[in-house]
Amino acid sequence: MNEMSPSENQSHNVALVTGASSGIGYATAKALRAAGFDVIGTSRHATAKGPDGITMLACDVTDDASVANLVNDVLDATGRIDLLVNNAGVGLFGGAEESSLDQARMLFDVNVFGVIRMTNAVLPIMRRQEKGRIINLSSAHGFIPAPYFSLYSATKHAVEGYSQSLDHELRTLGIRVVLVEPAYTRTPFDANLIKPDRLLDAYESARADVAAAVEEAIRKGDTPEIVAGTIVKAATDTDPKPRYPAGKLARQVSVLRRFVPASAFDRSLRKMLRLPV
């Protein structure tokens, strides 16, 4: 890990990126550093390595004490936090009925309450600064249906509602909250998906078809660097938009969701996921 030096960080905007050891978080930390930010990345594991020049610190976003310790360490070293990128999250693939309530709670604890914990921890700092920006990683699954990602999609819909509402609360304080919404991205996301804790035969065939469609879509998807570029734009726009679709597919889906008749969109979605139309 790189050591933080207050003298080196005081003159630049300080960015804190959760889940920065791989995938979108890794690319984002690297891109923000190239854009002139002093970047601190986090990982659940203290030994995780980030991009060159990025300070990596351990943080479990499901643990109040871990989050508080992280933010205190960053503040002690840098004196400020100008940007928070809430990227840490987990995926769950399977029929909604195939997950127990305990598993659903675990998913929400990471993807929703983790965002809230991190946000609540940095807001007092940003309010004192009268300046700050929070970027929450959502997904195209946060504004469209996502069969066999039902619970994951529910967490992203929750993040969308939380973020848009919070942005209205904070604007007069000099703080903005924005969403970045990737579609399928070429990361280890599909390989790291959590499996349901009570698989049911009734869903096996359709689940397998959707899994194959998703695997193909990820293989053809955007690179993490494309998403990272969108995050940098969301972080640096003088007058930020409430949401930023990241990549060609995400932009297309966002437009289609608004303007295509619901029945046609429904058929298109099922066809893409190899479900009976």
From TrEMBL:
Q: Which InterPro entries match?
A: NAD(P)-bd_dom_sf, SDR_fam, SDR_oxidoreductase
Q: Which UniProt keywords apply?
A: Oxidoreductase
The family annotation for this protein states: Belongs to the short-chain dehydrogenases/reductases (SDR) family.
Its name, as the record gives it, is Oxidoreductase
